[in-house]
Amino acid sequence: MQHGEGAPVFKIGDSSAFKAYKAKPELVKVLHERVGLTLPDKPLEYIHKRLKEVVKTNRNLKMAIDVCVHCGVCLDNCPTYVRTRDIFNSPVGRAELIRAVLKADSSSGKIFGKLVGAAELTEEQLEKIYTYYYQCVECRKCAYACPFGIDQADVTRAVRGVMYEAGIISRYVATVIDAVERTGTNLNMKPIAVIKSIVFAAGEIKEEKKVEVEYYIYRDDTNELKKYVGDKEVASWKLDQAPERPEALLIPPSADFFTNMETLKGYMLFLHLMGIKYAFSTEMAELANFGLFSSERHMHFIGQKAVNTALKLGVKTVIAGECGHGWRAFKNYTSQELEKRGMKTLHIFHLVIDAIKNGRLKLNPEANGDIVYTYQDPCNYARGGDLTEEPRFIIKHVVKKYVEPINGREKTWCCGGGGGLLTDELLPLRIQYAKNWYEDALKVGANHVVRACAICKAQLDHTLPHLNKEYKRNITYSGLMDLVYKATVV
Asked: Which of 95, 168, 233, 388 lies 20 to 30 angstroms, CA to CA, from 294?
């Protein structure tokens, strides 16, 4: 089946036909039990009650309801509205759906109803809320444009969180959360599959760079710490009997084991050349954290898996790979928990910059050819993770021709797949969202878009064939560590 097959046809002005499939109650029940929740008997009443509670405690939701003056500044900055022109698929429109429900409890709402924009929370209204709140990419671009700083992405997270408590969540988001909490990867990979992917990458590095990289893998199902040189296992011990231990734990997004192998090779070659004794762990081989998109309970649960893994291995440092929202959750939650326990946390880019500045990494930009590259910031680096200058410093050392995007740093356009929207039934919508950054790339004359984020890369993989066909161009893409790998001289 092709990506997006069977999805509705996009129509400008009305995106209501695009609904993320809902998770089945059986799956929701499993997830709830994992984080101490139980499904309410009366979901509508529960959601109504919780919305009234959350509006009192969530600053952004309260501001969206009480402070928003409908000035419209957010509209021209919202990637979902710019490309659909559906007012409900916008920051102000989404907030209005919740405002209407809360207004129904006011005196004016009870007397005048729809005349003052009030709406009872019926099944129909809830379906509308679900539809449009799962069309938001949670990019936070609106928050930077809003004169009052209202963050609709946070409102989306809060409203989705309430719906989740009542058993309503995107099937895709729920499935990914379940997979990582059970297996340690979003892709539901067994330990042997993770190991084979890493070993395969090491074999390619040996073939392409003539270097046998050294690394460790902790295999959780057998409680073994394994040491590798190139694609060969050279030692294996039960963890508590290991005579040597890694210094650092590398946590990439699991997509790097499957579709972004060049990114994975970039990590492995770089860390080896720097002499860092690092390990992967099959117990937690996932930086991505879909709890950010739907439930703080699950965000914490997933983050804690990383903490527990690092403690078990006894590492001093935990290194994050290329993943925008994963970095945001890691930087703002997981890293704090790790640092409380005496561990240092950083992004792989921080190490690369240090190596370049200190002359320890030899690079040849010629290796990446004569094409024109542009770096487009992942939303959660620029507007949620304080990682904007580091990628630019690196890319200028690994390519010959680089152009800044028109909308860079905090003004960046979302790839169109963020917020848990990277699912087939929403593909036609995601293609529309993607036109924002695609047209920016064309305007600056770029041939190649660099996006250092697993969701961005998956979104580009799905949408570029459609966009290149429509615009009659041949834009290509990669991560940043892919380019570091190619440019590295050994």
From this structure: 388
